Amino acid sequence: MKLSIPGRATATAVTAAATLLVGGSIAGAAPAPQPAVAAAPDIPVANVKAHLTQLQSIATANGGNRAHGRAGYKASLDYVKAKLDAAGYTTTVQQFTSSGRTGYNLIADWPGGDTNQVVMSGSHLDSVTAGPGINDNGSGSAAVLETALAVSRAGYQPAKHLRFAWWGAEELGLVGSRYYVNNLSSTNRAKISGYLNFDMIGSPNPGYFVYDDDPAIEKTFKDYYAGLGVATEIETEGDGRSDHAPFKNAGVPVGGLFSGADYIKTAAQAAKWGGTSGQAFDRSYHSSCDTTSNINDTALNRNSDAIAYAVWALSS
Fold it and tell me: Which residues are catalytic?
C-alpha cells in the first residue's frame, strides 16, 4: 500500500427457484430444471504461500526488494506472467516511466465472456525499497494469481469477461494503475462492470475490512464473511491509498478487501478477531521484516477464498 495519504466455508451455489407449470401444461410433466450458478472453488492457501516464497526468493536475489525500476520487480512480473501464459491467459505487459525508471503493469485476460461486461481484479506487485513486500503486497498479488489459475483449472466460462491485473509503482503514488485507467478509452472504461482491489490481505495481526464503495460488491464480500461467521468492518485506513482509486475516480464500480497496515488494533477488534490489541495490524509495514514470516495464514486463506467467491459471484 502506498505510504503517502493518510478453515473456509465452501461457497454455496446460488440456484434459481423452479418455475411451476401453469395452464396448458401437460399433465404429469416435471418443471424444467433451472441451471445453477457454479460455486467458487476453494483456493489452496499452500499454493498462495508457494507464490509468496517465490516472491521472497526473487527479492532476496535482487537486493532485498521488488521495488519499481529494480530488477526484483521485473523478475516478479516475469514469474507471474509465466504462470498465466501456461494457464491459457492472454497477457499484456504495459510499460510506463516514473521517477526516471521504467515500470510495468501486467494484464491478463481469460478468453470468453461478454467483453462489454468486464469483471476485473487487481493488486500491486511492487514493494517499497526497504524490504521484500510479502504482505504489502505479495499477499494480494499471490492470491489474485492463484484465483486466476483456479479459473483455468476449473475451465470456468462465466457470462462476463474476466481480467486480472498486477500494477507497478503503486508505492510511488498509484502510478501504474492510474496510467492504465488514463489510457483506456471512455468506451473501454465503461465496459468494466467492476474492479476488485486486494492490497495487504495476510497481515500478521489481522482485521477483516471490506471497502464500502459499490454496494453490490460490498455485499458480495460481506455475504461471504457472514457465511464464515466472521464479522467485518468498513475499510477506512486505506481510503484513496491503493489502486482502486483511479478506477473509482473514473466512475468504475470498485470494492475490495484489506487486513490492516500500521493502524493499531483496538481491544474491541481483538475481542472480535483475535490477535493483539494495542499493536499494529502489520508491525512490519514498509519494513525489511515484511518477509514470508510476516503472514497470518488464516487471514490469507480466508481472503483468498473470498476473492474467488466474489470473482465467481460477480461474473456469472
Answer: 170
> For the chain, where are the alpha helices, taking DSSP H only?
45-61, 71-86, 140-154, 175-182, 186-190, 215-228, 244-249, 267-273, 297-315
Residues 292 and 58: beta-carbon distance below 8 Å: no
Instruction: Give CA angle at 225 (224, 229), nearest 5°.
Output: 125
Pairing of strands 254-258, 209-210: antiparallel
Q: Write down the pLDDT at residue 208.
A: 98
Task: Determine the Cα–Cα distance for residues 275 and 207; give it in Å rounded to an integer.
Answer: 9
Task: Calculate the CA 128 to chain-centre distance.
Answer: 19
b (16+ CB within 10 A) / e for 272-295: bbebeeeebbbebbbbeebbbebb
| 109, 122 Cβ separation under 8 angstroms | no
Q: Which of 71, 51, 47, 45 is nearest to 60 (CA)?
A: 71
Span 149-194, pLDDT tens digits: 999 999 999 999 999 999 999 999 999 999 999 999 999 999 999 9
Per cent of the chain over pLDDT 70 is 89
Q: pLDDT by residue (tens digit) across 32-76?
A: 444 456 899 999 999 999 999 999 999 999 999 999 999 999 999
